[in-house]
Structure prediction request, 260 residues.
Amino acid sequence: MKKIESRDNKWVKRLNGLKIKKNRDKEGVFVAEGLRFINEVPADWAVEAYAVSETFAAENDLNRYEKKAEVLCLPDALFTSICGTENPQGILAVCKKLEWDEGDVFAKENPFFLLAEELNDPGNLGTVIRTADACGADGVFLSKGSVDLYNPKVLRSTMGSLFHVPVFQNVDLNEISAKLKEKEIPLYAAHLKGDRWPYDLNLKTSCAFLIGNEARGLSDQAADLCDQWVKIPMPGQAESLNASIAAGVLMYEVVRQRLK
Prediction:
């Protein structure tokens, strides 16, 4: 374990710098914060280093972390200053980004995917990824203009599901829709002008859903890429659903049909 006392230490500066997207992109790493999140890191996922507070170090066995990577110990106040939460749990990890293989994802038997156009809210994206993980989705595809997958708020919202479901960023929806057509995977748009309920679809075979931006919904260009528009029933007075809720309803319909 390496003790760090100064704010001018290179590791402290680096950890603060990784709060900025361009630095995460440049280094190809992200910061996982919190014990529960870190416990979800797979054994074969590369971790550069762990940082812990003095209190955490005094109250926990660090052996499991020291076996995997260097452990940095910081005074509590200094540790808190590098975290993105007001009441941190005392541990974070610098993890390598993983580039999933799109070919492997498309090669799965009867895959189901979720696509999103310019999903901007970090909480929504994190919830979508966590729900996709719970539903056994085979991949999540985020268009250009979506919030950064490694935004700290997104990471916290995934509750570790980031490590379980392949997520692809900055995808070209035209290219992905063409690949879906090539693989004969129908793409359904969640759309207020849809003329079918999702419950009327056959989702036991390969399928994909496309959801839109929280404020604007789907653009006409994106909606036109889809094979069919479907509408989620809303017998109440609300005009629309939160994007992550809509995604959850659609993904759980896939689960419902496949469990029958």
Summary: The longest helix spans residues 243-259. The chain has a mean pLDDT of 94. Residues 10 and 178 are 46 Å apart (CA to CA).
